[in-house]
Amino acid sequence: MLREILDGGKAALGGWCVVPGSFTAEVMARAGFDWICIDIQHGLMGQQDMVGMLQGVAATAVPSMVRVPWNDPGWIMKALDAGAAGVIVPMVHREWLRTRIVDYGPSARAYHTQGAFLSATDYTAAVRVGEVVRHRLEQALAVVDVLATPVVPVVTAEDARASKSRPHTGGTAIFTAPFNLTGHPAISVPGGMSAAGIPIGLQLAGRLGGDADLLAIACAYQQATPWHTMRPPLDAAG
């Protein structure tokens, strides 16, 4: 089905799963996406999680993709053997960064070159920071049901590009990246309109393992607000 869409020259809308759980994967697969990606590279998931999530997606007719941790034949074969319709392979920039670095935009160039200087010790320290953040989030979520934040710290595309050129500030991922680090489920819903009529996203984050509760809260919020029914004005002259 996915191949037919792509061969027909149409855009295929995919859903991204970064939180482990076959239930979450199946819910995503039934949400109307053309394909579902199980992100092993950035999600807090291992091989067993991947297998269960692929089984959850297999209960629907939606094709599943797996983004493997890196360009490793072992991981690629395991993903395909587990039932993935295809794989997304990251970590293929090394040679291009050496020979074609000027072809990268400023933000992509900054992100990739900074990563080249991170050691295993740096990575281990980051994991420990993630554990501290996860503990503090769990303390906060013991008092409230969800946390609400903006999705991005900017409104316009111009502001986003300026933010991405300064990756040390967190860029546009400053509100979303912490939950990728800790594994807490998070969802983005329409949360308002700017004075210029540009849609604004609201991020809701819930407790570990509380995916179903978070989806119910997000659904209730959307039903109680008009933002998802509004559209930005399109300037045909622009």
Characterise this structure.
This protein is α/β, with parallel strands linked by helices and 238 residues long. It is 42% helix and 15% strand. Strand 1, helix 2 and strand 2 form a beta-alpha-beta unit. Helix 2 (22-29) runs parallel beside helix 3. It is globular, with a radius of gyration of 19 Å. It starts with a helix and ends in a 14-residue tail after the last helix. The model has no long low-confidence stretch (mean pLDDT 84).
Give me some keywords for this one.
238 residues, alpha/beta, TIM Barrel, four-stranded parallel sheet, 15% strand
Give a topology summary:
Elements: H1 2-7, E1 14-17, H2 22-29, E2 35-39, H3 47-58, E3 64-67, H4 73-81, E4 86-88, H5 94-99, H6 106-115, H7 120-141, E5 147-150, H8 157-164, H9 177-182, E6 186-193, E7 199-205, H10 211-224
Parallel strand pairs: 1-2, 2-3, 3-4
Antiparallel strand pairs: 5-7, 6-7
Shape: globular
Distance between the termini: 35 Å
* Lateral arrangement of strands in the main beta sheet: 1-2-3-4
Low-confidence stretches: none
Helix content class: 40-55%
Whole-number count of domains: 2
Profile the largest sheet.
Answer: 4 strands, parallel
* Rounded radius of gyration (Å): 19 Å
